Amino acid sequence: LRFDEKVRVVVFKSEVKGVFCAGADLKERAKMDDAEVGHFVKRLRNLMDEIAALPVPTIAAIDGYALGGGLELALACDLRVAASSAKMGLIETTRGLLPGAGGTQRLPRCVGIGLAKELIFTGRQVDGQQAFSMGLVNHAVPQNSDGDAAYQRALTLAKEILPQAPFAVKMGKLAINRGMEVDIASGMAIEGMCYAQNIPTRDRQEGMAAFREKRPPQFIGK
């Protein structure tokens, strides 16, 4: 996906009705020794980092339970859409653990430090509407009879992104992600570097020409 230039948006969904991702298999985890657990969690953390680093926008379609590592997977995505009936939570402390695949870092960046601490300290689960009210998800939608309401809303959101200039969207994502980790002056410099990379693109010229000619732009990602 990282190197496929035809890919414009990636949507993560589950094929299991009622579950987005239920997190780690604790029965499997119980059979591991301490060293194996550390190695397993490191690999999981690296996977989430790889997802977060995808250059195109990513959307998590949460149509059911997203618990522990399942919510960490959703947090690694750029955008999240949840069915109102979905259940989400970093429940690790209820099992004698703490989030180990990015949850302690991505959740506070998403909902704020105080709320993230409350959710992690208590292991509380929230539904889609509660998640929306706290900014954990971008959209909450009523579940439908097929159990894929979040996926359908995620597709609609993806289709809003698709017509936009692909390279500009990629640079926008990069500028936001890198800029959030530094002070605002450094962030402005990052934005400037990303903008400079976009200036010589064909798509920028096409966008300007389409505006002048009062027609929809035809972006090619170049």
Could you write a compact summary of the structure shown?
With 222 residues, the protein is α/β, with parallel strands linked by helices. The chain has helices spanning 26-30, 34-52, 69-75, 103-111, 113-122, 128-133, 149-161, 166-179, 184-198, 202-213; strands spanning 10-12, 19-21, 58-62, 65-67, 79-83, 87-89, 126-127, 139-141. It has a 4-stranded parallel beta sheet, sandwiched between helices. Strands 2-4-6-7 form a 4-stranded mixed beta sheet.
Write structural notes for this entry.
The protein is an alpha/beta fold and 222 residues long. The chain has 2 domains: 10-162, 2-enoyl-CoA Hydratase, Chain A, domain 1 (Alpha-Beta Complex), CATH 3.90.226.10; 166-213, Lyase 2-enoyl-coa Hydratase, Chain  A, domain 2 (Orthogonal Bundle), CATH 1.10.12. Helix content is 50%, strand content 12%. The protein is built from 10 helices and 8 strands. It has helices at residues 26-30, 34-52, 69-75, 103-111, 113-122, 128-133, 149-161, 166-179, 184-198, 202-213; strands at residues 10-12, 19-21, 58-62, 65-67, 79-83, 87-89, 126-127, 139-141. It has a 4-stranded parallel beta sheet with strand order 1-3-5-8, with helices on both faces. Helix 3 crosses helix 4 (103-111) and helix 4 packs across helix 5. The protein starts with 9 loop residues before the first strand and ends in a 9-residue tail after the last helix. The model has no long low-confidence stretch (mean pLDDT 94). One of its GO terms (cellular component) is mitochondrion. One of its GO terms (biological process) is fatty acid beta-oxidation. InterPro entries: ClpP/crotonase-like_dom_sf, Enoyl-CoA_hyd/isom_CS, Enoyl-CoA_hydra/iso, Enoyl-CoA_hydra_C.
